[in-house]
Specification:
Layout lengths: L1 E5 L2 E13 L6 H8 L2 E14 L12 E10 L4 E2 L6 E11 L4 E2 L6 E11 L2 E3 L8 E6 L7 E3 L20 E2 H4 L5 H21 L4 H22 L6 H10 L8 H4 L17 E2 L5 H10 L1 H5 L4 H15 L14 H7 L9 H14 L4 E7 L8 E9 L4 E5 L7 E2 L8 H9 L5 E2 L15 H6 L5 E5 L1 E2 L14 E4 L12 E3 L2 H4 L5
Parallel strand pairs: 2-3, 3-4, 4-6, 5-7, 6-8, 8-10, 9-11, 10-12, 13-20, 21-22
Antiparallel strand pairs: 1-2, 14-15, 14-19, 15-16, 17-18, 19-21
Helix pairs in contact: 3-4, 4-5, 7-11, 9-11, 10-11
Length: 505
Amino acid sequence: MVKVRRYWHEQIVHEGTRIIRIGFNRDLKKIIEGLCKETYETIVLKDVPVLSSTTTMGLAGVKKLIIQNAGILEHGSIFSMDDLEELEITGSVGRLDNVFAHTCKKLKKITVYANVFSSERSLIFPYCQNLKSIDIQGVLPSHMVHVTDDWHTVMPDPQGNIISKFPFDNYRSTIESKTDEEKELIKKSLIETSKWVKKVYGHDRHIDYAIGMGARAMWGFISDLFNSWTRAHKIRKIGWKYSNEKERPSVITLKLSGPYQHDDKCCGIRFYYAPVDSPVFETYRRRFHLRKLAGKGNEIDKMIRLCRWVHDSIYHKGDALPTAHLNLSALMAATHKNGKPGNCLIQSICLCEALLSIGIKARYIKGYQRDKDSKQYHVFVSAWSRKLKKWIFLDPTYGAYVMDLSGNILSPAEIRNNLINDVPMNVNDEADYNGDKKMAKTYLNEFLAGNLYHLSANTISRDSTEETSVNYRGSWIVLAPVDEDRYFYSAKVTTDDSVFWQAPE
């Protein structure tokens, strides 16, 4: 037994091993706090649901850390363990974040012998300057192609080939080369993985999602290896449930969103809306008879009429981006007058500029999916109601707006919150997709929800916002849940929804 002075306390470090079974009924944070006072050179953590970011920060004295079965190892979950020399992951893992371990200056060896349901394309272990060995084996996601200790080696070579800095053995691709004895050991590990899924699935939606994203592929490998359709029936059932979720995320994915929180760094962000008397808006009003199209009545009625006008004028096609200037006049000429389609961005630009032209402050919002590698997003419009003192959601692609059960029209923030908390809502009866009203029935849960995970808006709302030649284009601001703002490297990011949805001045 030795005493080590670490930061503000003295820590007792014992020789030998301490085994700690976590499970869903124990507070991992309190366990780690206890280990900061009295610990062992070797720690074994069994059945860890989620090892969250910086959980192990400052945990000194531990030379070897073993994790047996883990639901999720998040970004930076093994962080700044100054005495750690060896890290070992075994059993079954729901998800490995790509940088689940970093900044461990004495770490020499990482071993992963596990069946992993989901991960990123690359596993990166940065700022571990003494790392000499990374040994990864198991049934791994097929899209995992790179293991490295250096960010700079993640990019492919000029020919587009990705060569892993540290070789790894994914049994999916190497099973045919295994001996009969090795195959039997792999079968035994998969039987244990099947038992683990039965035990942990249904306790935590984040773990459920992590398992679900790889369940279909995992069951396919198991059924082929055992030559049996009935093997791992729980994994097969989960795979069916989540098979389309990755390609077409729904409310299931949106419910994984973390909360928003106050962000001092972004308090100075302000949004600007071009005035109604701008010459270009005067031109739009005359050319398209916008005041007549908006009609009489209150501001909400005018918003809805203009939304339906854009919806009825431009046929939607997801990949249709006309070769034209990105403003109301040019886009209407390139689509409506020529009978050609436009995508949701085109429709939203037109609606936003039409609303600004009649004096209603508006901006279009780009809604992104949770997967940061996804190229899919949806664009809708947010218009300010002076009477209701809130933003109103308008989607020209569907000619849609959303109401609560009392008929009150809702904002984008209210819709997102209601979807996460299963609060019932209604879409207007006239909503349709290119004339098909059936698609509007699944609009909220199966389409819109998947594209509300991250939101982005420009600080300046005016004509031709997307045009590179226009001065004062503003900058794009991303609203991201807590702990997911790190996914955006080229944009200003905030976790503060009050900043993003601030009232216009």
